[in-house]
C-alpha cells in the first residue's frame, strides 16, 4: 500500500472467555481480510490505522507499527460504534462494525503518540 492510505480494523475475541483475538480490516469497505496480529496488516510509513480498541496482548505489535511509521488512531468512546451502527442500520457483525468505524468523524479518534 502507498503512503497516506486509511485502514479500518475491528478487533474482536475469537471465542467467548478466550484470550485470542481476530482482526478484520479493510482499506475500501468492500474487501475484508483477517489477520491474527496487527503487524500482519500491509501498512507502510504514513498510512493510518483506525481501530475500535487495542487489547493488551497486542500492545507490542501496535508499538512496532508506530515505530514503522504507521499512524494509529483508537476510538475514544466505544458507545459511538453502536450509535453509528444503529444510525446507519448496519448489522452487529464485524463488517458492520468496520463500516461504522468508517462513518465516525476523525475527531472521535485519539492518535497514539509516536513510538520512541
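-> sequence recovered:
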Amino acid at each position: 500500500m502507498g503512503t497516506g492510505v486509511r485502514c479500518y480494523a475491528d478487533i474482536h475475541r475469537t471465542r467467548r472467555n478466550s484470550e485470542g483475538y481476530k482482526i478484520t480490516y479493510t482499506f475500501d469497505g468492500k474487501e475484508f481480510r483477517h489477520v491474527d496480529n496487527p503487524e500482519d496488516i500491509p501498512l507502510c510509513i504514513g498510512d493510518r490505522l483506525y481501530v475500535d480498541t487495542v487489547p493488551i496482548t497486542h500492545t507490542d505489535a501496535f508499538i512496532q507499527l508506530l515505530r514503522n511509521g504507521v499512524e494509529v488512531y483508537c476510538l475514544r468512546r466505544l458507545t459511538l460504534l453502536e450509535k453509528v451502527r444503529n444510525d446507519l442500520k448496519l448489522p452487529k457483525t464485524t463488517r458492520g462494525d468496520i463500516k461504522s468505524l468508517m462513518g465516525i468523524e476523525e475527531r472521535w479518534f485519539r492518535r497514539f503518540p509516536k513510538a520512541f
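The CA atoms of residues 32 and 40 lie 14 Å apart.
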